[in-house]
Amino acid sequence: MIKKIVRFFDKLEDRVRRKLSHYPIFYAFIGGVGVVLFWRGVWHIADDINMSSIASLIIATILLLLTGVFVSAFIGNRLIISGLIGEKKLEEKEESEIETEEAQLINLQDTLDRIEKKLDYLEREIEEK
Questions:
Q1: Angle separating helix axes 24-48 and 2-20, nearest 10 degrees
Q2: How far is 41 from 44, CA to CA, in rounded Å?
Q3: What pLDDT digit, counting tens, does each position of 28-86 carry?
Q4: What's the Rg (C-alpha) of the chain?
Q5: What percentage of residues in the chain have a pLDDT greater than 70?
């Protein structure tokens, strides 16, 4: 039962993300409203239980460090692009897909290294003449 509910919302999220990615400004607006309302709720709960500022800061820091959310600012554009091209989320990709992408990145890096060496060689030849 829980699997069905999770699967339903996962598929719904994919469809909504795919549609909204065609309208980045509207997507940002909807996302912004959601984030503000979420944090407003968190703020009010913290006030309701009389949580001190220091306790809030400590708990927030621990949560952000544990979840890796400190780096979330660097994935915003990537989310829009992945929605536009219908790319799977990382957790949905199979291990073989991830390994294939990793191999492609390594191959690209090797190609760039070879090009850099050739350019260095050509620069030395030009300087010698």
A1: 130
A2: 5
A3: 889 889 889 998 998 999 999 998 989 988 888 788 767 766 556 445 556 666 666 66
A4: 23
A5: 76
Which two three-digit tokens encode residue 68? 């890796």
The length of the chain in residues reads 129
Query: Is the separation of the CB atoms in 82 and 89 below 8 Å?
Result: yes
Domain-wise residue ranges, the chain: 2-90, 93-129
Residue 35 · residue 42 · CB < 8 Å? no
What is the pLDDT confidence band of residue 17, given thresholds at 50, 70 and 90?
A: confident
* Pair of tokens at residue 3: 């699997």
Cα–chain center distance at 21: 14
On the CB side of 85, how many CA atoms lie within 13 Å of its CA?
Answer: 8
Q: What tokens were used for 87?
A: 């790319």
Sign of CA pseudo-dihedral 38, 43, 44, 49: positive
